User: Fold these one by one.
Assistant:
Number 1:
Amino acid sequence: MNLNKKIAIPLSILALSVAGASWFYKSGTFSKQTELHKADGARHQEQSAPPLYTCPMHPFIIKDAPGTCPICAMELVKKVTGAADTTALTPEQQQEMARLGQIALSPTQRVMANVAVQEARVQELTREITAVGLVQYDQSRQAKVTAWIAGRIDALHVNTVGSQVSRDRPVAELYSPDLLATQQEYLLAVKSRDRLKNSPIPAVAQNGEGLVAAARQRLMLFGVKEQQIAELEKAGTPTIKLPIYTPLSGVVVEKMVQQGQYVNVGDVLFNVADLSRVWVEIEVYESEFRNIRIGQAVEIRSQSFPGRGFSGRVAFIYPFLDPKTRTVKARVELPNPGMLLKPDMFVNAVLKVGAGAAVTVPVTAVMDSGKQQTVWVEIRPGVFEPRMVQVGQRTDALVQILSGVRAGEKVAVSGAYLIDSESKLRGGAAEDHSQHTGGAQPEGKVPAVPQQPAPGKKPLNMDDMKM
């Protein structure tokens, strides 16, 4: 009896243990813990595993130590683990992406293709128009010194071209027999007026005043100034030499006479120009002159004075176009301190044109095929979609987007051509971007037909390479 009890009790305990273990296993607690232990072990093994190195140009080359690629001799880079695998997509997803021309890149492929993205932003767009120009005389500040009476140049006070002249100082002295006779007539008229002014007959007194006025008029027509006539009347004797004055102060540009030379009425003695202000005639291309306005600020730069700018404004736009250069000339007026700008000097002009606030992307983001402009938009991490865009104004770094991309969307600013090439290699619809404009089709635009791979040729798939 005691022996049976000793055997029955352990058997009962064993049966209860088996039943409990069976219930614990079926409840899944044990299996979940087992899976957690396996995952922890795999993670620990992955973390403790030595790093692998691969070639950016030949991803199938994998080594467990740094070095160089045996094919292209490039430095091996550390292989990125846990990268997204585009082959994990279902066939339906891959077909849909191919139909839309989308391309998915793993992190390793993005590094290899040097793909960088940037958001499209709304900002003030200011572009610069550059043009070449030629410094010219200000035509309103040019004058000719001419002989108002025939005679002989007895004295020249300006003997060289480039000399500074002033309108208050004579540039030459002229001897003229006609001038001498006219002065004597004036003096006789003055004496007659003085004798006849007290005459009781009014007509006689008025006749004396008329003689003086007629003689004065003749002197003034010969170039004699009012001050000189007053001095002549005060002295009572005629002046043998007539001083000749220039109409304005400036620089002698041309000298046509020599001392002792005889000149006739109307002969040019000097050409004088005031260089305190000059004109710059700039040539603007046919495609740019619509942005030029009268009163627009212009900065003039010269190679003779690097780092220094001269400020002026557009004063006139010529109403014709040069058929040889296909340019329109615009006149810029500006001060010339120190007469640094010389006539016929070549200069560069910079005009800033504001296009207002607009959606902009970097210039490197736009791919121009000649017929259309395309950008690659990152619609979700690692997935890019082609968009046909309409561009507007351009600067050195930015381009205005009129349609196709909205502010805030991320576009590929580098590596876009490699993404496009990858899409073509995968047989995507990269040639037809018209359905990805983000808006309605432009009028008159017919969607391009996607090019299919040639029969018998399989497109190259980069996903086949081991990453």
Number 2:
Amino acid sequence: MANTRQEDPAPAPGDSYVQSFARGLQVIRSFNTAAPRQTLSEVAAATGLTRAGARRILLTLQSLGYVETDGKRFGLTARILELGFAYLSSMPIWNRAEPVMEALVEQVKESCSAAVLDGTDIVYVLRVQTHKIMRINLAVGTRLPAYCTSLGRMLLADLDDITVRERLAASERTAFTRHTLTDIDALVAKVAQARRQGWCLINQELEEGLISIAAPVTDRSGRMVAALNISGQANRTPAKVMQETMLPGLRAAAAEISRLL
């Protein structure tokens, strides 16, 4: 599955809105797994910009070292990672959280991830992997829909029901598997359940054979700032087994990271 999800539409231009900057970010986001290198025309089509507008932005990004070209196609350079690293470096908690997650992975022998909520998506901020079990390439910065992921439903549980319903209504709610819930009322109920019990389990809704369980990471005020999860294979670790054998360790790790905040 390619990471092709786009952000919500930008607000209307105003005194506090720099349209050229927004368009530059739009151009950057047009590059993804499905389109790692694009022609000028392809960038213009993907962003809705004119060829002239897309060309000015691409050449500006090239002069700054964020884009390279072979004369026909453009692509991002490794320097673009500086933009994402600025977020991670401003949140030193994840440096302290990594050993906790590594210890959890060693204990449960499954992969562990941390993510935050961004609109209708989750964004991975840290991942400690044990085995590759998904076709999706999960790396820091990867976006996935919140409605069908354990991390997403756990993070949505920190919002009130009205906001949860709004976020779900704004989601595409694609049925990725025969198990995927797409009905808003059913999803609101699942989010409410996660809120009550303090954890969330997803059984093969994002990908066939994938099962995951998540717990909240909170700050001193009790506000959820991230969520932590464990992912495994359903045929190896059924939902009941994951809940009974891995949830205690996951909740303990999430609580330890919360204390580090």
Number 3:
Amino acid sequence: MTDTISPGPISSLSHAVDLRSPWRWIALGWHDLRRNPLPGLAHGLMLAVFGWLLLWAARDRFWLLAGAFSGFLIVAPILATGLYSISKADQEGRRAGLGSVLALWRSGDGRLVRFGLLLGLAGTGWVLTSAGLITLWSPVPIEKPVDFLRHVVLVPELGLFEVWVLLGALLAAPVYASSVIALPMLVDTTVPVSMAVAQSWRTVASYPGPMVMWALVIGVLMALGMLTALIGLVVLVPLVGHASWHAYCDLTSRDVSGASSRIPGPADGQSL
């Protein structure tokens, strides 16, 4: 059941996209979280609990945990789809609660299921690649975080850590480009996965500066959440999820009356 409410004072429509836009998306996300906190905080708590379970399961195998936590960021966007539906409802003057999120997850939308499986495969591939790289290259077993810091990150010569970061970036970049617009678009419209992914890549190509900045902002916020013993994720996950909806709206010029997305391009006169 949804209740009609007056739209909030902040709108994400018809704004030029430039390098400052990510900070505006964060402000809009914070507005959405404060306006309707329960669904967002439930998402954040769920992901924090999942992270704590990972820590417990791999507490003495940091060679595995390092890949698991970084792979977690690859899969996390599919778990934020409920947050997109909350922000969409709020933008259209409706209040959506946990019931709306559960309805989306129970809808059995094959597009979201397929996309989630693809993200899961990408995350699993990175976990296995990371674990194999660390165990085969490291001169000593990596069992604790201090082992990773001492024998991988702080070694004086170039090698394992740089390759580990480079491989992770090479995997994360196409996943980010494929999902940053595609996932909210799949929640918002009935377009097929292929069309949503193509739109996502076109958007990233049209706005390279802002999209790189947005990726960096997301990465820094997620790193801060992990450095707070995952407690920070309770707030930062919904903040980024809601902000991602507003990024989608700005980047596709979505109209609140519906999902009217046009393809942005250099001819639109955007500022990079």
